[in-house]
Amino acid sequence: MAEFRTDKQGIEIEIQLLDGQAPTSKVDGFDIDGIMNRVNKHYHSDDGKVEYSSDPYKTLAEIEADLAFYINEGIDALNKHNVDGLTIGCQPFYKDFASGHVHTSIENMNESSWVELRQRLFSAQPIIALISQNSPALYGLRAADVRLVLSSWSAFTDFDSINQAHYQSLAYGENGNTLETRVGSSGPLFQIIGLAALIRVIIAGNDVPIPVIHTKDNWSNVINYGSSSLCKVDEP
Q: Which residues are paired to 183 by β-bridges?
């Protein structure tokens, strides 16, 4: 087994808010960047959408307190200016953005450990998608989560894909090694905190959840049936 340090992990979560098509620069006296920067310096615009990036933390309790305070403050600030301040994951038909990103840093990662971690998360994508489900089935669409059907972030890619717009990604960082998991859906903040906890367990590798086989059938079952889906698992 590849050797790498998981005891030195830092966890950072990015949450994107729906800004109601508010301008990202000063237009008619409305300065969305200025408004959000007064809430917290970690707010910024990402392709016209408001995004909050937390500091890296060693514990999930710390990051939960950070998100609960500043995301709620940010939503309140937007609402005071008649802008819909909701997390993008709560918008079933919003296609173009992940609801959040979970970043973890791993010390002493090398080529073999990078491949191993990527394989773990690649195989765990159906589990992550199932736990992240938020929006309900609607009209004649047979789906446990509408956003996972419609979002451009919710498609699996081949393990060796170099496409940067995929649901899961792993990358080397300049100041250490960074693992990024892009979450297609999820609504309340505690949901993405739970996903961060699952990701840490998967990375640590000591008590890995039931290994779901990465297949199109499993992915389709998770999308269509949610927690009622039947998925094939790896042999023990």
A: 100
pLDDT tens per residue, range 205-215: 765 656 666 67
Segment 16-37, tens digit of pLDDT: 887 655 554 455 556 777 888 8
Is the distance from CB of 231 to CB of 126 less than 8 angstroms? yes
3-state secondary structure of 17: strand
Q: How far is residue 70's CA from residue 122's CA, in Å, rounded to a whole number?
A: 31
Interatomic CA distance for residues 207 and 211, integer angstroms: 11
Q: Give the residues across from 86 on adjacent strands.
A: 18
pLDDT of 201? 81
Give the CATH class of 5-228. Answer: alpha beta
Question: Taking the CB of residue 59, how many other CB atoms lie within 10 A of it?
Answer: 10
Which of helix, strand or coil describes residue 132? helix
Specify the residue for token string 């920067």: 37
Cα dist from 172 to 95, 108, 117, 177, whole Å: 27, 11, 12, 5
